[in-house]
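Think of the structure tokens as a kind of shorthand, similar to the way a musician reads notation: each symbol stands for something richer, in this case the local conformation of the backbone. In the example below we present two proteins back to back. Begin with the first one, reading the sequence and then the tokens, and try to describe in your own words what changes along the chain.
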Amino acid sequence: MTHFPAVPPSDAAEALRGEVRAFLADTLGAMPAAQRAHSWNGHDPAFSAALGARGWIGMTWPRAYGGHDRSALERYVVIEELLAAGAPVAAHWIADRQSGPLILKYGTEAQKRSLLPAMAAGTSFACIGMSEPGSGSDLAAVSTRAEKMPGGWRINGTKLWTTFAHRAHWMILFCRTSGSSADRQAGTSQLIVDMTTPGITVRPVLDLMGDHHFNEVVFDDVTVGEDALVGTQGQGWAQVMSELAYERSGPERFLSTMTLLSGLVAALGADAPAAAHAPIGRMTAHLAVLRHMSRGVAQLLQDGADPALEAAIVKDLGAMFEQEVPEIARALVAHVPSAKMTQDFLETLHFTVQMAPSVSLRGGTREILRGIIARGLGIR
């Protein structure tokens, strides 16, 4: 049974919200909406370092590892405000959202002390090596192999769709360490790989808009030490499933088209025609429900639960919402007054329409997610 607990109001969280909004107003200034729409893929190391200096990366991590011992709800507030403002978060995003928490949960003391402080400072960036050619979201089909050797591991294989691998310092690699690909979930592990290690080739994969954030990463006899293993050998599948709860449940699963939605509402204005009321009202209601569910997952994570099912539901519903936003914008654009039909608004619409198909792919395809949900609900 799913559970999305209500999160009680917090004066501290709302005070933090005001701080973040003031910081973003000062830092982002008059950044055009068309640029803010790229928030997820906005790679700005200086901005990430500024966030780290404010203590807004690694917020829930212990101070001993560079964190700030704050609550999951306080972190949620920061993420929500960053995304709503269209801040360029790509540089630190993966480290803060999932790689850091993974290391905190399963890593050795040495791994935590060597990696987490720089991640929390916004100066060390991570990527995740999960998907592979020919397997897509079917992670159990992993064929990249790490063979045990004296003193460490030898890695061979290929990862695909690896976001910002060309700018990352580290990869958390999901690979097979025993058995065969026929074993599916058994015999998999996770390794920390320095992206400057000899034998790694990173090749760009341009998206349909010509942007470079995806990559193919080839491992050709790449060797890493014994201390690269994260957690327990052979338990990679369980660890990855735990990691994906962080990836799938956050406000990024329904706020990455927020720049267009807020721009549309502003362009329609207070005197919006009656034809716009119902679709805008419906989107607002959907947004409120998704926010409640996503905040509930943050509370479950705060309580130490493993909300993999709830996270999959948020991700699936969020993808549907985000793909509906540009379609509604296209339907209502004829009602936007000519004075509000700016080039910036049109460029934001153009980008979001092209980006929207990807939201039901990243973080797990719709088919994979619904299989997880069906099994979690006991109907498959």
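Once you have a description of the first chain, move to the second and do the same.
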Amino acid sequence: MSAVLVWLRRDLRLADNPALAEAAARHDTVIPVYIHAPEEEAPWGPGGAQRWWLDRSLRALAADLAAAGAPLTVRRGPSGDALAALAAETGATAVHWNRLYEPAVVARDRGIKERLREAGLIVQSFNAALLVEPWQVATGQGTPYRVFTPFWKRLVADHDLPGAAAHDARPPAALPGPAAPPASEGVDDLGLLPAVRWYDGLEAAWHPGEAGARARLAVFAGEALAGYDAGREHPGVAGTSALSPHLHFGEIGPRQVVAAVAADGAAATDGGEAFLRELGWREFAHHLLFHFPETPQRPLDRKFEAFPWRDPDAEAAAEAEAWRAGGSGVPLVDAAMRQLWATGWMHNRLRMVVASFWTKNLRLPWLDGARWFWDTLVDADLAANTLGWQWAGGCGADAAPYFRIFNPVRQGERFDPDGAFVSAWVPEVAALPAKHIHAPWQAPGSVLAAAGIELGRDYPRPVVDLKASREAALAAFQELRGG
């Protein structure tokens, strides 16, 4: 009789779970394990919104595993100590897990693998998180890519994406759990939820867990995929998949998503092709993080280490706080930040808009903005967060040129032309006509009066002048180039 520990991390699903499937196929007893050790991911342990999601996802996973016959064992770290202790307690001769790619986790897992093998255990790791491993895509010179389009072309040319999805991804009908499960802590014992219940908006917006992920994918494939190419640009339309937190926590795998897109030929449509490219950006983000592990803390373009960010004085601190609170006085920015705080999620175009506003109009360090997203996004993913913020700041791979500065007024007029999204999240300006809702400070006094709005009383004036702050950002970039 052989027993195997399956160390679950951010692969919180039964279907399309290579480590779990291999364990069930090769061993008589399967012992699923979750080890809580956020300090091992420092300085990027899960933020507040992620902890809420993890709490809910672990509860769902525990129920699914129990129904399948192999209850989840929950322990605390250090992870290596916990795995060694469990192997001794259960007589397990093997440990399986699915790979993660964050720098701190890669280093930890490498050390644990060596330690367990030295103790005589069989250790195997698998790919459950990506379509292609980060080291499986390289330039003709064997170097990592730094630009998305050639990366994606190479990935598609060298790897059969429909083929990657064409495998048996069904969950096991049953798992051979232990006759006497090892001692386990409860999810409640992990203290993932805050003492102050600020997460009601998250509860209303999301259904963490594998069943919730499948339901979200089914709705997207049935209702929004065909029109994704155009619908994804408009924050007031349910035109995106909203699968990012489910993918981050591994409640669904990218191969399952590709299989759904490929069904009935959807991958060949404009919407299907555009969505697959977005999955490609996710792959690209992990490719970059793996090959450039310093980028969560340092710009990939090292000359930006000398960029003249603003001094962190009281004025800058007040403007930063206004941005975080959705009180910048720029309606599209404020609507996006309020959506983030209420739901733990923000539309992708708005992530670019608010990051541009932070790094260029406020001229505050990209890393400080990235840290706020890290704490408030339910889908906060180190690879994607780093890529996105360095892109916006002009200092990363495939980055927007620094002189490209999003104008939040023009963005609102183009992608929220009737003001519906802004009205939903910034009701203070909802009475304004669409012509003025994205720039109330430019509205005639009579229009403001008719809407019952006094700027500075009912809604703030912008914390910065968009034109002047843009010019200051460009001047700072010229200073960097001159230096």
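Compare your description with these statements about the second chain. The first helix runs from residue 18 to 26.
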